[in-house]
Structures
1.
Amino acid sequence: MSLLYDPEFPEEDVPNRNDGQRVDQYGFEHTDDLSHETSEEVISEYLTVLTRRSVKWSRLLKDNTKVEKNLKVKRYVRKGVPNEHRTLIWMAASGAQQQLQMNHGYYHSLLKAHHDHNLEQNICTDLHRTFPENIHFRESSQLCLQKALYNVLLAYGHHNKDVGYCQGMNFIAGYLLIITKDEEKSFWLMDALLGRILPDYYTTAMLGLRTDQEVLGELVKLKVPTVWQTMTRHNVMWTLVVSRWFLCLYIDVLPIETVLRIWDCLFYEGSKILFRVALTLIRHHQNLIQQAKNLPDICDRFRQITQGEFVDDCHAFMQKIFTEPGSLSMATITKLRETCRDRIQAEESGR
């Protein structure tokens, strides 16, 4: 089920508005202030990188209907997937394309089935809260994405009854629709993320999410001990400062171009990318964090570290996440997950 953007705002030629707002290629409005002009300089440089990468990707994908996982493709993904190839790479790398082909018509059957009223109500409550700053999610848009967003969330809620609908899923589905412009592909990418890459993040107990926040704490203890000592000294739980990072996969935390580059690697390499991003942000700003005097001060500094030139320059930032945290294997994360999950469950059973 393909979606096309409003022809007045094609992706390649999004207009400037005359009310002090500019609309980017994804439909998000920005204020034309000094900080945005600085951002434009970064984007201009990045476009040069994208053009070069696009040529290489086009050569790689020429006459190829399948994308195989190998070191060359992994290297290409880490250096950035051009927007015109994103849907193909995300679908192939995550296994979503295989699921779509094996379950032909399944998505549409979910939409035709009897719907749970509570599920519908919960989804509808969040529709108008989803990207109000994006022109494609407004009812006034010629091809408003709210209906497509509703369909994807409703279908997924019936597909995965253990999850149903949870706040935060609307933003993930919204990003997927912005990139794929296709409901069915967005649905299967949701399935890959929530069902395989990030299991138990969005269930009622959110055990996967809570576990990974504790895993991050253990990794910080190993790799950035001064920050861990600061957090411990002020008795700050990790969920207070990083829950949005993990729950929304950095949406509305980091700039959209940076988030999309993170997602390129997330679909290809899995959840350890979320830890690499978090560790890079924390390690790079460890001096700022360890100067915090109290809990509100720590929370404020964790907000600060997700803004500015360091994260705006997505190409340089993505290079950093593979160097700054040092070695980080999936085996290490798996072992820490087992330890942290057992600890959480033991604490809960002892209450």
2.
Amino acid sequence: MKKYSDMGVSTKQTPFEVAEAIDVVITMFPSSPHVLDVYNGPNGLLRGGNLLTPRLLIDSSTIDPHTSRKFSVFVSNCTLKKKKDNWENPVMLDAPVSGGVLAAEAGLLTFMVGGSEDAYLVAKSLLFSMGKNTIFCGGPRNGSAAKICNNFAVAISMLGVLEALALGQSLGITASTLTKIFNSSSAHCWVSDSYNPVPGVIQEVPSSRNYTDGFASKLMVSSFLWQYLSVSSKAYCTFIMLHQVA
């Protein structure tokens, strides 16, 4: 905190103090437990109960859709301490991002937004100050759902590119040569041309910086896979029940 206060940024000691001082709250954390603590903890953003100061809360964390919807419903049932413009009640958006650390540093993130479309239109200017794309995905939790789908696709392509590059190198083809082939053929994807996992093929990506500032594999296992399975298991149970009825 001292780092930012020395830069002239106003700081607070707890999330609740932050919420009491501003109209818009933006949060971004690695997983659901972090979000639950910051929002519902002893000094959390929602400690004030059904009376809230901020009119708009935007959570850009990568969390499961069920948690996103739960927070959205709770916030929408709260009342603003002070009415602002035409806002009677506070609103929450789930707006996870894609692009990684490099896109965040360059202001090139993509926001996948779920919630009220009116609130989304109000929030767009804020989101564009941090990213290059904002996509409205529908109602509450749809942004988080879109993020899981995106992560699932990227994880599969990352594993595919990794295995293909490892196989090619074991057969005597360099990673840079294989990457040129991938990027000019049907194997072309974001992982091969923008986030190559082999050191030295692309500069300034995590693999060329001793794998620092990248997406940790443990987060994919503990966060993304848990989220995906929590959704797919419900779909699977529904499928089994329908199959038994049929």
3.
Amino acid sequence: MEAPLLLPVSTAACSSSFGITVDDDTTTVLSPAPARSSPSGRSILARYLAVLLVASVSLFAHHEASKGFRIDVVSAANQGGVAGRRFDLLFVSNGRAERVLHRASRAVEEALFPDPSFPRRRVTRVTVRMMDGGNLTAADATVDANGAGEYVISLSPRLLSDARAVDAVASAVRRAVARMWLWDARGAAPAHVTESMVEYLAAIPDAAAATSPAEDDASNTRCISPRFLKHLERHRAGFVARLNRAMRDRWSDAAVDAALGAPARPVCAAYLAASVQPPVVGSTSVADGSTVAAV
């Protein structure tokens, strides 16, 4: 029998099968179907990257919010006088004003906003300047909000006449920064509460700035004082941050209880009673020298 003629087969045949044609008969030999690709690792990787991107953006936003803000220090040269020249020499020309403000802000932010669950004010720019004129009776420092996260800290010229002008200005800046970051229940928080928090926060960067016993004796009758806040913070870490968060929108006496996690009245009474009694030998003393039972 005559062998059939084999026809050339194109290498470009179907990818899933190929055929060999012999005369009028076609014999098709099916090649193994390509295995379906298993779920690609690319899609899983893409999902992980998307999650990481969202998390990174969130962390970056929080970091940027907490990281810093623009600082402008206005020269007092045009005001003339000894105070203006000293301000420029001690704080403007050497960048000391920016450093003092940065350190103060970092300490206050760490105390009030330990994590993103503690909402913070929007601060985009802070201007430090000396008050106009020779007003020696004004407050050491004032803080004015200009909207859109911009604040102006104005320092009294009286601070520059102090023999320790650098320390006096630094202390005033710390208090101003604390006021800038604190919530005040839209102005409804009691003044002695906000002022005590300002004094407590201002003392964080510099232990020497703590309130002296003579200054704090009068405030003990109102219970809430820088020392009382320090006492509560030691026994209930994060108390000041929680109290500040509770003061964001409105004020209520229950805010102190909520921040403390217990009724504050008996704790206050015990603290005041202990603060007017001499220490008992062998008792445990708190930082201010008074003997107070653990809260």
4.
Amino acid sequence: MVCARQVFRCFKWLERAGDRITGAAGPYFVALAVILISLCSVSFFTVVQPGFQFPWLSTPPCILLAVNLVMHYYYVCTVPPGFVDDPPRHSGSNFMWASPSRPQRPLRTSGVRWTSPEIEIVRAHITRCKRCGQMRPERAHHCRICNKCVLKYDHHCPVRINQCVGLHNERHFVLFMAYLVLATLCFSFLGYPYALDALGMTYLPWTHPLPQLCFILSYILSVVMSRGETSVEAQDHEVYRNIAKGRGEAFINSYDMGNLALFFNVGPKGYPLYTLFFPFRIMPYSDGSSWARREGLQRHHGVREGEELTDEEDEEEP
């Protein structure tokens, strides 16, 4: 028992050391990501795009794709995720902010900017974080690297964005990943013949201004970069699913509305659909104190009171 406790403490020390190292190296990772995105963009527009048969038709969508990729990456790196102790946020008035489809109500009591009869809004349960002492609503988690509780915490991403993904930048992160996958797939497919040229496999002279090595590196990067992310809630829900299965019950995620319009905050009562295709900033539908749930569910089905996972369980010793 003593040996197991020492091993546990050793792993926790290594974990905290890793957190400090990744936190300190975060700005360098972001700088590297900016360089790689720039390299891939230059490679595409100097080598692949000039070979399009109908450039007047195909170039504008490529430019729009690149602009969305770059701007959503800028947003997800610069927009704070939303900490529990932050003051209330309001939308901006400059050209980077989209206007809602209709005036949205102020956040006074419900904690949401709009809703509809088919959506049930439930006030979030409040608990106290044992790490920082903050009172926080459900779906907020404590980030070890930031040492703060983050609203609708998804994960801390030191490699790509050097901060947490939370309530206020989650939408930009998802759109950045979507446009990243789309851009890398297009580059991988359209750049394949040019990659063969750069490798010398076609015996054709390389006449492009970009060095062959730079194009090969950017092409390989595009092929391997098409991957997604998981979240802390997805990990929790897997645990809940096993708990419910052990009792012969089915786990139902009460937050899963099957409603992407609500997540992206678009539609008649949210923001226009064009905000999905142009990189405007918008506000989330909730301030983190209330959440839309499935009708009739005040908590996850199959999970009983007291079985919800907390951040503190990671610190328990065997």
